[in-house]
């Protein structure tokens, strides 16, 4: 009869519905020597609690922690931010002047033959790149045709 009661309490224990008194009953039962044969598998679980309760820690825990010097960290962070802002403005000033000069020279040719050659060169480059794109599309069309043959719709 006691075995049935312990089994019922075990079910409640694994469902998380036991009271502290019922858990103490389980600990006492599994600490004793007369545990039912089919409940032997739970003995190490509850025996562990009684063993750990008897152990005492002798290791000392250091209570002092290292103090970080926050002032130095904030000064270093400020220096990094100022350095970043200074670098941004320095680089942007150096890059701004050549851009204005290059924009005024773009697309102007005094000689019409030079302009024609430059235009033909640009159009040839564009044509080559478009042809490469068209070849890729042809591969996709072949794939679609073969797919439609395999998977008839």
UniProtKB/TrEMBL annotation:
The chain crosses the membrane at residues 70-91. Keywords: Membrane, Transmembrane, Transmembrane helix. This is Anti-sigma factor. It comes from the Bacteria.
């Amino acid at each position: 009869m006691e075995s049935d009661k312990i089994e019922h309490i075990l079910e409640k224990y694994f469902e998380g519905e036991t009271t502290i008194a019922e858990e103490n009953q389980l600990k006492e039962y599994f600490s004793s020597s007369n545990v039912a044969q089919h409940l032997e598998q739970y003995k190490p679980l509850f025996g562990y609690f009684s063993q750990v309760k008897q152990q005492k820690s002798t290791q000392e825990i250091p209570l002092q922690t290292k103090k970080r010097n926050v002032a130095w960290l904030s000064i270093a962070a400020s220096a990094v931010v100022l350095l970043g802002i200074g670098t941004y403005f320095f680089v942007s000033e150096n890059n701004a002047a050549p851009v204005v000069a290059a924009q005024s020279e773009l697309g102007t040719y005094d000689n019409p033959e030079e302009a024609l050659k430059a235009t033909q060169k640009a159009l040839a480059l564009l044509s080559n790149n478009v042809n490469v794109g068209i070849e890729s599309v042809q591969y996709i069309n072949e794939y679609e045709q073969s797919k439609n043959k395999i998977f008839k719709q």
